[in-house]
Write a structure and sequence with these properties.
This protein has two domains: 175 residues, Rossmann fold (3-Layer(aba) Sandwich), CATH 3.40.50; 142 residues, Up-down Bundle (Dehydroquinate synthase-like, alpha domain). The radius of gyration is 25 Å and the shape is globular. It is built from 18 helices and 13 strands. The strands form four sheets. Strands 1, 2, 3, 4, 5, 6 and 9 form a seven-stranded parallel sheet that branches. It has a two-stranded antiparallel sheet with strand order 7-8. The termini are far apart. 44% of the residues lie in helices and 14% in strands. Bound molecules: nicotinamide-adenine-dinucleotide (NAD) and zinc ion.
Length: 428
């Protein structure tokens, strides 16, 4: 009888590495002689097509856009749909749930709502607590959605990320219709191919690349946004303009004041051009699912994601991106890449739009000298960024407005100087 405390020694590995290597070589040789089979090289090509629609009154019965976009073939039953709605959006739209139900009834030959719309918390709370994901999976299972069914996600970028992840992982992928209701979601997060939730204190740690079936941008939804969310989404437009399109940046700079005052026609132009640039990048970069180490669209994001975490998500994503861009633009200037006049134009445009470029979390008080120093914890964002992307660190900087430049090394002293320069009392 073997005493329980004694481990069973079924295979004793030789402790000497040379003996082990000889043994492994002998085994490999035997295998290759007896069992050698050539590798089978597999190549799969998959094409994705989806439309990003622009409309008004999406769920008014006189607007057939959504119902027609998913119309079943003739003589087929209506398409099964489950709707998930952002609670923060809903607060401003009394009667919205009834409107969805009426819409589905009106187009009952095209669509069937499988259950009453599910409501999830708006904002980062949706992505921070895994119970929301579990609830969605339970509902999808409960109503029996299949891969040919549709989940329509209505809300801000956070809710779309959560619902997109739930849809992508149930049955390995249910068709997703996105209805973005914030500026950021309409011009960036809602039109792309990513989803995800936060875990282990890291943004988007869990997630997939999964293109939507279709996207429906309704400008009317933006009317109820508070000023922070109205402004926040414009950060992503500035980001894509700064790295890709100088004319677009000039247009934003020229209209910054009226955009800040909520001119809807100008916002429409901003969203359309920004969405177009994002979509072009995804289609033409040759790396839609970010297999490489480079992620140009994440200009300003290494610091942004870390600042979101350091501020316990007090900052909106776009607000953090504006700070991240201010930091990386300042660093680009200090590194001699970006001309001073262009750096100042970027900073003043961000300020005219109403963005703050500094939060106290960017600094910490030195324990010995009690002076304020750049927060070393912010730089953990660089390591997390590299870990998230894989491969070598690849950062997008600017060598001019509209001209991004990728670098692989960081001068921490210059970054500290850049942080110090962004303090409101230093910055004019
Ligand atoms: N998947 C991607 O490619 C991608 C890209 C960029 C950002 N993101 C993610 O998007 C999220 C940020 O999205 P966001 O900026 O849309 O903010 P958000 O989703 O956090 O929403 C902000 C607030 O606005 C509320 N809201 C939504 N629509 C409203 C409306 N029409 N009127 C009034 N209130 C409304 C929400 O309830 C929430 O309280 C972050 O989690 C970010 O990581 C994802
Ligand atoms: Zn972003």
């Amino acid at each position: 009888m073997i005493a329980r405390s004694q481990p069973l020694n079924l295979w004793s590995a030789p402790s000497d590495p040379l003996v082990l290597e000889r043994k492994l070589k002998r085994n490999l040789k035997q295998e290759s002689e007896q069992d050698y089979l050539p590798a089978i090289h597999q190549q799969v090509q998959v094409q994705f097509n989806y439309a990003v629609h622009f409309t008004r009154g999406l769920f008014q019965t006189q607007n057939p856009l959504l119902a027609e976009a998913i119309a079943p073939p003739s003589n087929h039953p209506p398409q099964s749909i489950l709707a998930v709605v952002d609670a923060g959006f809903l607060e401003h739209r009394k009667g919205f749930l009834d409107q969805i139900t009426q819409y589905a009834e009106f187009y009952s030959s095209n669509i069937t709502l499988k259950a009453a719309p599910i409501i999830v918390p708006g904002g980062e709370a949706a992505k921070n607590d895994p119970k929301h994901l579990e609830k969605l999976h339970q509902e999808i299972n409960g109503v029996g959605l299949c891969r040919h069914s549709y989940i329509v996600a209505i809300g801000g970028g956070a809710v779309l990320d959560l619902v997109g992840y739930a849809a992508a992982t149930a049955h390995r992928g249910i068709r997703l219709l996105r209805v973005p209701t914030t500026v950021l979601a309409q011009n960036d997060s809602g039109v792309g191919v990513k989803n995800g939730i936060n875990a282990f204190d890291k943004k988007n740690f869990l997630g997939t690349f999964a293109p939507p079936y279709a996207v429906f941008n309704d400008l009317d939804f933006l009317k109820t946004l508070d000023d922070r969310d109205w402004r926040s989404g414009m950060a992503e437009a500035i980001k894509v303009a700064l790295i890709k399109d100088a004319n677009f940046f000039d247009w934003i700079a020229a209209h910054a004041q009226t955009l800040a005052q909520r001119d809807m026609n100008q916002m429409q132009h901003l969203i359309y051009r920004c969405a177009q640039l994002h979509l072009e990048h995804i289609a033409q970069s040759g790396d839609p699912f970010e297999m490489g180490s480079s992620r140009p669209l994440d200009f300003g994001h290494w610091a942004a994601h870390r600042l979101e975490y350091l501020t316990y998500y007090r900052l909106r994503h776009g607000e953090a991106v504006a700070m991240g861009m201010a930091l990386d633009s300042t660093y680009s200037y200090l590194m001699g890449l970006l001309p001073e006049a262009q750096w100042q134009q970027i900073i003043s445009t961000l300020k005219t739009l109403g963005f703050a470029l500094f939060v106290p979390e960017m600094m910490v008080r030195d324990r010995v000298e009690h002076s304020l120093q750049p927060n070393p914890s912010l730089f953990k964002g660089l390591a997390e960024f590299r870990e998230h992307l894989g491969g070598e660190l690849t950062l997008m900087l600017l060598q001019g407005i509209g001209q991004g430049l990728e670098v692989h090394e960081v001068d921490f002293e210059k970054y500290e100087k850049a942080i110090a320069l962004l303090q409101p009392e230093v910055m004019v």
